[in-house]
Amino acid sequence: MRAETRRQLKQDKFSKATLQVAEQTVHWSAEHKGKLIAGAVVVVVIVAAILGGFYYLTMQDQKASVEFSKAVQTLSEPIRPAGMPPQPEYPSFASANERATEAHKQFQAIADKYPHTHAGDFAHYFLGVTSSQLGDNVAAERELKSVADYHNADISALAKMALASVYRNTNRNKDAEDLYNQLIQKPTSTVSKTSAQMQLAETYVADGKASDAKKIYEQIQKDAPQSEAAQLASNRLQELK
């Protein structure tokens, strides 16, 4: 009986405390009704802003992708034979320099109009590539270094690969070798280990480091003996004998 009484008292005490909390909550809510409504409005506005921002970025991405595809297409347009006049129905260019100049303009427009999109990021990469094609190694290095620092590993790897070529073109083979080694250690879906190895070996050959190049080619053969890269490495080894 005493145990039952104690249990009942505890329940009454708990119920009373619960009711007090409920009453206090209702009382506080009534006093702060305006603040609660204002807070709810703020939350709604924030959510709407987030959704609106997401929709805006999605639309920007779509527009940028369309323009980006056109710019990439420009880079693949054919070069007309000397003396052949342009034909409007068949886009072409009089020279590789003219084609690179036009593509560069298009990529610059994309980078300026859509700075926070995937297409905008890739446009910066192609700004570096086309600058290199136009012989502007300073601009190429600036753009490619910027893209090489991106958190996106795939585009960063592409930029490092292209930047290494700029270094080789400007007689900085040691810098190029450092980048190739980074790519070998951390290959991506855009730049494979084998691709970086082949470029590193070619750089060694250009530097007169035939023995280092042979080691790379032999490693490629060992890693993937049946691959096309292994066959290419075998050909290179034959050339070095």
Topology, pairings included?
Blueprint: H1 2-31, H2 33-76, H3 96-113, H4 118-133, H5 137-148, H6 153-169, H7 173-185, H8 193-206, H9 210-223, H10 228-240
Helix pairs in contact: 2-3, 2-4, 3-4, 4-5, 4-6, 5-6, 6-7, 7-8, 8-9, 9-10
Low confidence ranges: 1-56
Shape: globular
Q: What is the first-to-last residue Cα distance?
A: 104 Å
**Largest β sheet strand count, sense and barrel closure:** none
Query: What's the CATH topology name of the domain at 49-77 and 89-173?
Result: Serine Threonine Protein Phosphatase 5, Tetratricopeptide repeat
Would you summarize the structure shown here?
This protein has helices spanning 2-31, 33-76, 96-113, 118-133, 137-148, 153-169, 173-185, 193-206, 210-223, 228-240.
What can you tell me about this protein's structure?
By secondary structure, the chain is an all-alpha fold. Among the domains are: 114 residues, Serine Threonine Protein Phosphatase 5, Tetratricopeptide repeat, CATH 1.25.40; 50 residues, no CATH class. It is 79% helix and 0% strand. It has ten helices and no strands. Helix 5 runs antiparallel to helix 6 and helix 8 runs antiparallel to helix 9. It starts with a helix and ends with a helix. The N terminus is likely disordered.
